């Protein structure tokens, strides 16, 4: 029995070590695996990231995909680009990888492999090519001022609850017109920074459940969304909130501007929400296969490329799946 336990422990440690030390593995069906985020670059180049360190690229608006090798097998949860070349992806075990050629190649910038239970990173944001922030579980907050060459842990204890402690930080978004950076997270957590993340102030929250995403629309409204289909909209920078009826209990993961006052929201259970009035009202559409949807981008005039639990799908603007 003791011998079996030792073998199990050794196997667990070996698999854990492999997830950090090894490169990602080329997978024949990587485009059908769990993918958690997607970014759009100029000329409709797309970059998607997900489990096992998978990074997928498309050069034709998501009609076909190719996998590139990365320096990790940890799950990647978010990706962002500063310009058409420089981008960053973050994920489990605090992995941070960087590309300087539009996603074609990646280098490992940071990871924490000392503890198998070390909290994951869930989002990353850069104000320019040098200054960036990565946030994650249990109040994890990292910052860099040199393009990711060095990352510093920043204590955000002042944002914690006296009884609960620091929540998970799930999402960041920036209002460039008002120079306000927003952060949302677990247990209704909301905060704002007016100096690019140097200092934060908690916002009064309209909800006690988790917010998985915070977003500023082109029209200037602030929106937060998350657990059990809850969606809230503010027209005054978070001073007051209006709850938007979604007619859905599917947790909302992300929001996308699709032109003018039109918005799309991506949820679990294959639910998409569409708005034509900057989120003041939404229409719920459930996809036939009901795959969990994580995030999406718009390509062309009438197509959404969406990533989620079963990889990549393409939909028209009414939520109907496009069969290739």
Shape verdict: globular
Instruction: Point out poorly predicted stretches.
Output: 1-19
Q: How many domain modules?
A: 1
Under CATH, the homologous superfamily reads YVTN repeat-like/Quinoprotein amine dehydrogenase
Helical residues, percent: under 10%
CATH-defined topology: Methylamine Dehydrogenase, Chain H
Helices and strands, in order, run as: HEEEEEEEEEEEEEEEEEEEEEEEEEEE
Q: What share of the residues does DSSP label as strand, in percent?
A: 35-45%
Mean pLDDT: 92
Integer-rounded radius of gyration: 19 Å
What structural category characterises the helix and strand content? mainly beta
Q: Tags for this entry?
A:
single chain, Methylamine Dehydrogenase, Chain H, four-stranded antiparallel β-sheet, 1 helix, 27 strands, about 5% helix, disordered N terminus
Structure description:
By secondary structure, this protein is mostly beta strands. The protein has one domain (52-316): YVTN repeat-like/Quinoprotein amine dehydrogenase (Methylamine Dehydrogenase, Chain H, 7 Propeller). The protein has one helix at 2-21; strands spanning 35-41, 45-50, 55-58, 66-68, 76-81, 87-91, 96-99, 107-110, 121-126, 132-136, 141-144, 152-153, 169-175, 180-185, 190-193, 201-202, 211-216, 222-226, 231-234, 242-244, 252-259, 262-267, 271-275, 283-286, 293-299, 303-308, 311-316. It has a 4-stranded antiparallel beta sheet with strand order 1-2-3-4, with no helix packed on it. β5 and β6 form a beta hairpin. The longest helix has 20 residues, at 2-21.
């Amino acid at each position: 029995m003791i011998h079996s336990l030792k073998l199990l422990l050794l196997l667990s440690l070996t698999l854990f070590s492999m997830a950090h030390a090894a490169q990602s593995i080329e997978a024949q069906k990587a485009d059908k695996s769990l993918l958690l985020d997607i970014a759009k670059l100029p000329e409709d180049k797309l970059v998607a990231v997900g489990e096992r360190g998978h990074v997928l690229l498309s050069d034709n608006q998501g009609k076909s995909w190719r996998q590139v090798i990365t320096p990790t097998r940890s799950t990647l949860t978010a990706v962002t680009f500063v310009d058409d070349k420089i981008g960053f992806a973050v994920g489990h075990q605090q992995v941070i990888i960087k590309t300087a050629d539009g996603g074609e190649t990646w280098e490992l910038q940071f990871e924490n492999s000392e503890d198998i239970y070390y909290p994951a990173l869930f989002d990353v944001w850069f104000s320019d090519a040098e200054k960036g922030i990565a946030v994650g579980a249990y109040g994890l907050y990292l910052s860099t001022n040199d393009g990711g060459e060095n990352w510093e842990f920043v204590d955000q204890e002042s944002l914690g609850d006296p009884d609960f402690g620091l929540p998970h930080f799930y999402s960041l978004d920036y209002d460039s017109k008002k120079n306000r950076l927003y952060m949302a997270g677990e247990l209704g957590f909301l905060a704002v920074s007016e100096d690019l993340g140097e200092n934060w102030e908690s916002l009064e929250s309209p909800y006690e459940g988790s917010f998985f995403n915070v977003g500023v629309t082109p029209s200037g409204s602030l929106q937060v969304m998350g657990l059990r289909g809850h969606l809230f909209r503010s027209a005054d920078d978070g001073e007051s909130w209006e709850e938007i009826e979604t007619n859905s209990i599917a947790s909302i993961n992300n929001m996308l501007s699709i032109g003018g006052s039109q918005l799309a929201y991506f949820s679990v259970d294959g639910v998409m929400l569409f708005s034509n009035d900057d989120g003041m009202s939404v229409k719920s559409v459930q996809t036939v296969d009901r795959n969990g949807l994580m995030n999406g981008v718009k390509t062309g005039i009438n197509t959404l490329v969406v990533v989620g639990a079963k990889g990549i799908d393409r939909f028209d603007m009414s939520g109907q799946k496009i069969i290739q």
